[in-house]
């Protein structure tokens, strides 16, 4: 694993970190190496897949090694030439917003102490605390901010000059701990597999990009992530199945880096460190996406959307053609990676247009309004082009990976979770600190007069509110995604709340002579630390539990299928512990056929672009193997193998496959093959070649 990890990380540095480095220098003033690398990674993810797709389309091939190298070199080289021609971006990268001082009002401190004492009580009795207690804690946090609203603020986000060595060391520690959180379960329990139901789907799509440059019949995903995965696979020399197992946990580090960049842009690097720690070590939503194998969602909703917001705030603070270009490129990039992120981006774009341009015109800042409007218009144009490429029907050069009709069918098909389900989706500590930070932002807004701080504050508040509103309605089709992905925005505003609590405790330590304030501050600090640390430690312990999803017989069958892969398709039943047939597809190197339980394909969610016919065919082959319909399906879909997982409920299905003791040969867990059936002239049926302990497969 170590050698594979080194190869994968080297490829990630070459394809994800470095290509956009000079473009980041051209479009954004230097704000520290970590910020520069964050923007560089975002620009690489936004551009390298596009170049690779164009080259593959021109070559009429899949993503070859030369296409992967050329796409990286073109982005890196063009950025270097642009910097030589126009020079690096000037100016400073000072924080946009002032940070509030420590809370000193005894009434506010008392309310906060009561709130976190109640929070500690709910943490000590998980699952037993009444629902009203969670709501009471949030109300107390908001009241504490309102009561102490007249506390003076600091003039800027940084009270003292930044210490680069300390800043880098703290960030490195947080990112290293985040990497340990992602890799520890894989190393201890999962390897050579990895937890995540969608993991195998992305393996299949990446392999299709490597071989054909498209995956038109398989799932509804934009081409950005599978294309970048194919580039990484070529550069590392690792097949996607191995690549994801060693590189996917590093996505948590990328998401922590994104919230660091945004929080640093808002209040300074100290808040950036806190935001990275909350995202990487406390937030459950991001790790939940990793554990489920939702890599494009993690890349788009947690990294690219967050970096796009940071670029948008840069446009507000320093309107120029460079910041407008940065906002346009990063703002449109999530559309390349996930369908739900496309919806997020549309909502964010609308919010940006209706808040920024009218406000700047109201202040008679017409020049700034023109630049902001130009940047947002470029973002919208680029987003439309990406959306047309991905979802537009009939565009002659598209070669879609999805269809707009399939996406639209999911609207209203998923029930919205309850109002307090947010605690279990994101983790109570993040919700408490996030609400505290939102309340602080709302109170601070009344003191702001300059355009950039006002627009930055409004953007952050509305981003959180829109994501929460989307999680409470079925109209958008993805309320559970909205709820989980709210964690990106909440990690940033929670850093403000956590930062104020830290300042309050530090002030109490330094001013112990002020007895009432010091006592209340310490009474607040102890339960607050315990209320945040205990559930985070409990969650880390839960994440580290064994979760191997593929048993040795399943992996043996997959290995045999890949060795004997001569084309065509396979049909497979669902596996154990929720693992779908896509695991065998990925292990064997096939794209179909996917099996849906009887009647489940009547639901619009997750239907592949190829339609329901292959699903009906797979169901017929598995459940009525002796029928003429199964014989026709086998011929029409070129079925080469059938893989059955032995479970108590599938005994009747297993009996449907007849034994053929005349076929010898040492093969792994039982093999079946199509043969001529006298009942259906010209059509094949399936016969067993050898029994297996847990699986039965069919081979030609």
Give the topology.
Blueprint: H1 2-17, H2 21-27, H3 33-59, H4 65-86, H5 106-124, H6 131-147, H7 164-190, H8 199-211, H9 224-236, H10 240-247, H11 251-267, H12 269-282, H13 285-291, H14 295-317, H15 321-332, H16 339-362, H17 366-391, H18 404-408, H19 422-426, H20 428-445, H21 451-470, H22 479-510, H23 515-543, H24 552-563, E1 569-572, H25 582-588, H26 613-623, H27 628-637, E2 639-645, H28 651-655, E3 658-659, E4 671-676, E5 684-690, E6 695-697
Helix pairs in contact: 1-9, 1-10, 2-3, 2-4, 3-4, 3-9, 3-11, 3-15, 4-9, 5-6, 5-23, 6-20, 7-11, 7-12, 8-9, 8-25, 11-12, 11-14, 11-22, 12-22, 13-22, 14-15, 14-16, 14-21, 14-22, 15-17, 16-17, 16-21, 20-21, 20-22, 21-22, 22-23, 24-25, 26-27
Rg from C-alpha positions? 27 Å
**How many domains make up the coordinates?**
2
Query: What is the beta-strand fraction?
Result: under 5%
The helix count comes to 28
Low-confidence region ranges: 393-406, 648-679, 681-700
Query: Looking at the chains present, what oligomeric state does this protein adopt?
Result: single chain
- Shape annotation: globular
Relative helix content: 55-70%
- How many strands appear in the DSSP assignment? 6
How far is the N terminus from the C terminus?
Answer: 34 Å
Sheet with the most strands?
3 strands, mixed
Strand order, biggest sheet?
Answer: 1-2-6
Helix/sheet category: mainly alpha
The average pLDDT score comes to 79
């Amino acid at each position: 694993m170590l050698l594979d990890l080194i190869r994968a990380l080297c490829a990630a540095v070459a394809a994800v970190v470095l290509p956009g480095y000079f473009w980041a220098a051209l479009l954004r003033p230097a704000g520290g190496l970590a910020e520069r690398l964050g923007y560089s990674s975002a620009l690489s993810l936004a551009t390298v897949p596009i170049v690779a797709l164009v080259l593959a389309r021109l070559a009429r091939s899949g993503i070859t090694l030369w296409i992967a190298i050329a796409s990286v070199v073109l982005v890196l080289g063009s950025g270097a030439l642009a910097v030589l021609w126009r020079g690096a971006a000037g100016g400073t990268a000072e924080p946009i917003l002032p940070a509030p001082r420590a809370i000193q009002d005894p009434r506010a401190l008392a309310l906060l102490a009561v709130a976190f004492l109640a929070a500690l009580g709910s943490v000590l009795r998980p699952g037993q605390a009444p629902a009203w207690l969670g709501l009471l804690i949030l109300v107390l946090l908001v009241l504490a901010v309102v009561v102490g609203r007249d506390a003076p603020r600091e003039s800027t986000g940084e009270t003292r000059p930044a210490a680069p060595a300390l800043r880098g060391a703290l960030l490195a520690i947080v990112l290293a701990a985040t990497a340990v959180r992602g890799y520890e379960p894989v190393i201890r329990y999962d390897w050579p597999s990895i937890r995540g139901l969608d993991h195998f789907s992305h393996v299949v799509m990446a392999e299709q990009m490597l071989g054909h440059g498209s995956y038109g019949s398989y799932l509804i995903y934009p081409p950005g992530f599978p294309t970048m995965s194919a580039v990484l696979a070529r550069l590392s020399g690792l097949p996607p199945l191995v690549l994801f197992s060693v590189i996917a946990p590093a996505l948590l580090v990328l998401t922590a880096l994104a919230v660091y960049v945004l929080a640093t842009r808002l209040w300074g690097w100290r808040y950036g460190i806190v935001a990275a720690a909350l995202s990487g070590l406390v937030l459950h939503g991001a790790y939940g996406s990793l554990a489920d194998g939702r890599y494009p969602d993690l890349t788009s909703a947690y990294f690219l959307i967050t970096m796009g917001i940071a670029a948008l705030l840069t446009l507000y603070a320093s309107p120029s053609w460079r910041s407008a270009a940065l906002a346009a490129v990063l703002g449109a990039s999530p559309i390349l990676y996930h369908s739900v992120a496309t919806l997020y981006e549309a909502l964010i774009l609308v919010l940006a247009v209706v808040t920024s341009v009218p406000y700047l015109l109201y202040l008679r800042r017409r020049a700034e309004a023109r630049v902001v409007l130009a940047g947002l218009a470029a973002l919208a144009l680029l987003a439309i082009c990406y959306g047309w490429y991905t979802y537009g029907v009939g565009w002659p050069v598209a070669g879609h990976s999805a269809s707009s009709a399939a996406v639209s069918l999911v609207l209203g098909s998923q029930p919205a979770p309850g109002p307090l389900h947010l605690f279990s989706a994101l983790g109570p500590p993040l919700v408490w600190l996030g609400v505290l930070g939102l309340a602080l932002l709302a109170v601070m807004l009344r003191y702001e007069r300059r355009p950039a701080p006002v627009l930055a504050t409004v953007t952050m508040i509305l981003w959180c509110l829109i994501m929460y509103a989307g999680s409470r309605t079925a109209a958008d089709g993805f309320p559970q995604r909205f709820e989980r992905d709210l964690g990106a925005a909440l990690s940033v505003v929670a850093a403000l709340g956590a930062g104020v609590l830290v300042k309050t405790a530090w002030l109490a330590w330094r001013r112990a002579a002020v007895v009432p304030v010091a006592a209340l501050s310490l009474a607040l600090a102890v339960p607050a630390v315990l209320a945040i640390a205990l559930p985070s430690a409990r969650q880390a312990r839960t994440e580290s539990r064994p979760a191997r999803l593929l048993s040795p017989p399943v992996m043996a069958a997959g290995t045999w299928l890949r060795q004997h892969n001569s084309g065509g398709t396979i049909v497979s039943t669902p596996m154990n512990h929720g693992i779908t047939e896509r695991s065998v597809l990925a292990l064997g190197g096939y794209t179909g056929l996917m099996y849906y339980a009887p009647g489940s394909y009547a639901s619009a969610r997750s239907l592949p672009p190829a339609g329901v016919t292959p699903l009906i065919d797979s169901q017929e082959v598995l459940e009525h193997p002796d029928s003429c319909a199964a014989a026709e399906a086998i011929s029409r879909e070129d079925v080469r193998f059938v893989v059955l997982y032995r479970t108590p409920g599938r005994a009747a299905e297993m009996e449907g496959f007849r034994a053929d003791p005349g076929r010898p040969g040492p093969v792994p867990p039982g093999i079946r093959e199509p043969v001529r059936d006298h009942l259906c002239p010209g059509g094949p049926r399936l016969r067993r070649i050898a029994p297996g302990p847990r699986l039965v497969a069919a081979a030609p």
